[in-house]
Amino acid sequence: MSTLYVRDGISTVQPPLPQAVGYIVVVLIGIMIALVMMLVTKILKKTTGEDNKKTEMFMTANRTVRTGLTASAVISSWLWSTALLGSSFVGYDYGVAGPFWFAAGCSPMIVFFALLGISCKRKIPEAHTSLEVVRIRYGRTAHIVFMILCLINNIFACANMLLGAAAVISAVSGMHIIAATFLLPVGVTVYTFVGGIKATFLTDYFHTAVILIIACYFSVKAFSSDQVGSVGNLFELLKAAAERHPVSGNQNGTYLTMTSKSAILFGILHTCGNFGLVVMDTSYFIKAFSASPAAVVPGYTIGGIAYFAIPWALGTVMSSVALGLENQPNFPTYPRRMTTSEVSGGLVLPYAAITIAGKGGAAAVLLMTFMAVTSTLSAQVIAVSSILSFDVYREYFNKFATDRDLIRSSHFGVIFFAAFSAGFSTMLHYVGIDLGWTLYMLGVVTCPGIFPMVFTVLWRRQSKAAAILSPILGLTTGLAVWLGTAAHFGGEVSVASTGEVLPCMYGTVASCFSPILYSVLITLLRPQNYDWADFRKEKLALEKLDSDLTTSHVHYSPGRSEKNSTEDGGHIAAIQSKELKRWGRIAAVWSTATFLGHWVIWPLPMYGSRYVFEKKFFIAWVVVAIIWLWGTMLVAIFYPLLDGGIQQVQQVYKGMTGKAEIVTGSVDTKQNVDTSISPSSPSAGSISESPQGQGSKSETI
């Protein structure tokens, strides 16, 4: 076998697919998906009364999304192109520890968000964004500070996704990288513009299904190829790769160990950075507000735990394939190793796919990357449009904005942010910034608001001054530490030095944890004693919320006395408050258990013991990861169908064939209650005198 050259120079790999394929996937398939979602939106309006001209439907799907679809959407929310590409490139750099720490840096905070989501659901059920919570508690100054932090979070998150996706699309199809950057958001803009958050949920489901099917295909194809053959043979290939080029900082220089200094440093910065990406991303709050009360905790918990397998399994298998086969003539870069820029640009996954599956593998990666970036980009777009409509337009320009006004401003936000994110990503590309750089430094700018935001929802003592000053001081501290350590270790402040693991880790940790100190110290000077009941005094929903916290489209009949309805409503509210507190305790237990399991009990003993994988252990490691991955696919595809999806399809069919009377839009309070609405309908969340309505209400609670 040939000795590989050092990792320098520039990429000279010819794209395996013609440019036309890239444009077909990015433009044609994107527009087709958008047109299908527009048709679905129209059908749902006709058959189930889901009117996207109503703000509550456009932004929160009437707060009735069930557990299955919530879990699928949560998995999709983290199915960034970064996750697919980044988990493979850290596996290439650090060995089996890289993909594991990538996965462990994602799942605990997804599950933790269940606690934040259910707390918001209980304390401020009418909210649309997390920023509304901040404004009500602390006023406009804090509102503006957190708004800027959230927008920075969304901007860098989108840039991270677009840089990686555009680089891969360009590498496998020859499509110009800037063309890919600007065309990727087009289809997203169209279906988000028309369908709002429900279109995001539905496209999330479709995209997640496609991505997971392709990921499972690679998990099988890797071992059915003649070059690998089995997991045991892959183990031998990795051993040989470590002999050719040992890994600095790994136990015995091998790829087959969790004792990797660089990998655990990446795990720390990745965990902190992703904590910021979740808490400071308003799209997570929107999805929590959109879910029915009983779906928030199980949806986020199931989604978070299921997600773990995707970067772990896919990253482990594909990075191992790339390392083991890069000295083979059919590897795209042969006879040299991949350059540092190719690895950092996210090309480990596509090169490994091309090696084991040829042009079919390249096409699969192209489709997977497109699905990943458009799915997660749609969540970012709807998040920013919600900020611009509710937190900017409604709060500072038109306090009495109507549905029409808010939908118009949301549409403007969708178009503006899609164009801005593409332009910002292009600017980063031309100054030499790629996927690896943004992946490492994200936490520096996303983390300062984490704990002030968490304290806003969970700690009644945090003062207004602490909420305003602690994230600003935290951001300043993080930037100073990041740039200072980059200058110290790299000798200068440059793109290269600021993209190294160590400066990014120090800066991220400083950004994440210094606001705790600042917030506590400032709060001690003059603590607040906030009354959570004050959240409910400000009416945020444009339509009435029923006692199960879903948007009301049908109301009490005039024959029912106001006294009785008030007494019933109070009784139901008391029951639900108790139920939500129970869900909060469950969320706290699950989030703690997930963090301890994925971050402490499992990996740290393996790190401390300096264990090097034996063949049988490596085989078990890979097999468990693949089984988990296939289980995730089954959960993401079939759970939403079993949890209300089939019933809604039946309801749509009956509506289309005229076999069911459907209520479209709100019913006037002078009319009698329409009892024909199916309890599985998203519009059936309201209190009704009929047995059907009562059944629906009890299911939701």
From TrEMBL:
Keywords: Membrane, Transmembrane, Transmembrane helix, Transport
Polar residues: bias regions: 692-701
Record's GO cellular component terms: plasma membrane
Main location: membrane
Lipid bilayer topology: Multi-pass membrane protein
Keyword Ubl conjugation: no
Keyword Nucleus annotated: no
Gene Ontology MF terms in the entry: spermidine transmembrane transporter activity; urea transmembrane transporter activity
Amino acid composition bias (Low complexity), ranges on this chain: 676-691
Region Disordered, residue ranges: 671-701
Transmembrane segments: 20-44, 64-80, 100-120, 141-169, 175-194, 305-325, 346-371, 377-393, 414-433, 439-459, 466-485, 505-525, 586-605, 617-642
Cross-referenced PROSITE patterns: NA_SOLUT_SYMP_3
Cell compartments where the protein resides: Membrane
PANTHER family on file: ACTIVE TRANSPORTER, PUTATIVE (AFU_ORTHOLOGUE AFUA_1G17570)-RELATED, PTHR46154
Family stated for the protein in its record: Belongs to the sodium:solute symporter (SSF) (TC 2.A.21) family.
The protein, known as: Urea active transporter
